Amino acid sequence: MTGENRKSRPEIPEIAKYIVFVLVIAYVVLLLLFASGSSRPFEEVAAAVSDSLDMEVLTQMDDRMLKRNFGLNSADYSGVMYYTSTSSMSVEEVLLIRVNSRKQIQQITDAIDERINTRMDAFEGYAPEQVRLLEDAQQSVRGRYVFFVVSSQAAEYRNAFDTSL
């Protein structure tokens, strides 16, 4: 009887093979969900994000401010939306860029990292709550979209971006 029971039960390597297979499939599905882009036009994504913004705190900036603050030229991208705080004592800002090619993503993320470091140096020592916002800044790259937010409502703005895709 023991021989029959042993043959009818799957062996541990056989079970492990199926578990690994399921984990790989789950990983691929998650990767596709979170790394995939969107075919939605920039205008729709930007409108969804800007509708969620607190316009009493944030104001839309022009191409010159993008160049000044990030060193990026808006003409190089297929869409740019940039909002920043009206107060010079606030670090709140929201940036959404749709790139023309994936090669541009690294340049943008480097510019964002530099912006965070510069702002942290400027506010260090006298505005700890602003430094905390910078430490909690959120960045997301989804397909051809790069999203960056520094705000006390960062999670809400990020959610608006994620659901707009």
Major β-sheet, in short? Answer: 5 strands, antiparallel
Low-confidence stretches: none
Helix count, DSSP H or I runs of 4 or more residues: 7
Strand content: 15-25%
Give the strand order of the largest sheet, numbering strands 1, 2, ... along the chain.
Answer: 1-2-3-5-4
Rg of Cα set: 22 Å
User: What structural category arises from helix and sheet content?
Assistant: alpha+beta
The number of strands is: 5
Mean pLDDT: 88
State the domain count.
Answer: 2
* Distance, first to last CA: 59 Å
Helical coverage, percent range: 40-55%
Order of helices and strands: HHHEHEEHHEEH
Shape: elongated
Layout of helices and strands, plus pairs?
Blueprint: H1 2-8, H2 12-35, H3 42-52, E1 58-60, H4 63-70, E2 79-85, E3 93-98, H5 104-123, H6 128-135, E4 138-142, E5 145-150, H7 154-164
Antiparallel strand pairs: 1-2, 2-3, 3-5, 4-5
Describe this structure as you would to a colleague.
The protein has 165 residues and is of the alpha+beta class. It folds into two domains: 2-35; 42-164, no CATH class. 54% of the residues lie in helices and 16% in strands. It contains seven helices and five strands. The chain has helices at 2-8, 12-35, 42-52, 63-70, 104-123, 128-135, 154-164, and strands at 58-60, 79-85, 93-98, 138-142, 145-150. The chain has a five-stranded antiparallel β-sheet with strand order 1-2-3-5-4, sandwiched between helices. Helix 3 (42-52) packs antiparallel against helix 7 (154-164) and helix 5 runs antiparallel to helix 6.
